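User: Please run a holo structure prediction.
Assistant: Happy to. Please share the sequence and the ligand.
User: Here you go; the ligand is F0G.
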Amino acid sequence: MTEAYELECIKCKERYPKDEILYVCRRCGGLLDVKYNYSAVNVDEIDACVGKSVGKRAALGGVWRFRELLPFSEDVSPVSIGEGNTPLYRCERLGKKLGVELFVKHEGLNPTGSFKDRGMTVGVTKALELGVRGVACASTGNTSASLAVFAARASLPCYVLLPKGKVALGKLAQAIMHGAKVFSLQGNFDDALRVVVEFCEQENVYLLNSVNPFRLEGQKTIAFEIALQLTLGDVVGGSSERSVQKSRDYWEVPDRVVLPVGNAGNISAIFKGFVELKTLGLTESIPKMTGIQAEGAAPIVHAFKAGAEEITPVEHPETIATAIRIGNPVNAPKALHAIKSSDGYAEAVSDAEITAAQIELARYEGIGVEPASASSVAGLKKLVEAGIVERDESVVCIATGNLLKDPERAVSVCEMPIEVPASVEALKKAIAAQHH
Ligand code: F0G
């Protein structure tokens, strides 16, 4: 369907044909974007997702429901594990506490437990189409877990570079169980990315980090789903209808989207998704893209607040939110553009604030997330208090990864089970002791 697309450099606008294996501009080194011929996109097919007339795409569900805006021809069959279609939760209790109309999009409910599956279904389908020898990535964990699973489905050799000692146990378990060749690199994520980029170039292996523009095409469907779910009222929980009046002329979007930022691919992808909906005339506005980083790994926040055009890499990034323990985010130029041009914001949060938000999400709303994901709520809280986020804004926080990804951290911040003898008397005594 979407034959009409090319790769375009975000800096010098040089264009490249779609079947070239390229991650950055050959002329200036800039990042690449997938550009469609938007006037040729079948908007009715996408719009048919709304309302009673379910289009033939909509029946597919998930990421591939939006195939009109994915870089493949009609005859390509996707490598899929049933990714996407994640619930959008209305969070009344936590929202009231924060003073906003809060929704959480739980990307941790993707098959491998993170939003990476959206990118990988597109990235690995593209890898097969291009006929590469294998796939590879550097990862703080989730990317590797997802890639390992998709590579298994596609029967492709998979190479993974992880920063030694800094990957949560659940993620590591996934990568090794699904048969990736896993290497523990003596260095941090930024070192691992540098090494894997060179490895892929030299060995003709396909790089599936978020510098790969096709991966981001899958991740942009988070934006499409948010708009669709708000428009259809396909929201989990909450007693009342949304306060904002639905206009059937346009799909709905929230005032703001808040999400954790590591290598900065996801914020760039989601922004692109919202821009495309607007370009096609399906929506009227673009949510304020708001990126949250951990204090010890916040180069984008520093650049945003200083009004700088470029980031200064953080040399020794540190945070308990290991997923976003990244000092030199490769997609920083795209992310800064997304934040600035949507009138968004960037904020840093401490590890303690992240942990507090993780516990609040779990106990107020029943949403279990890993630490990095909780940074969105921690950041939102801080920005409401600072008056940067206005009260009564409608806000969607992206919960990027599942609680089970990092069981060790969860156990270390909660009360341990109380050991009791096997009798009701002993149990009641232990409960009574708790109340003192
Ligand atoms: N949240 C989680 C749970 C992540 O795993 C990541 C990134 C992010 C947020 C940040 O997303 O990089 O697009 O800004 N994890 C990558 C990985 C780096 O290797 O799994 P980003």
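The chain has two domains: 74-114+214-412, 116-212.
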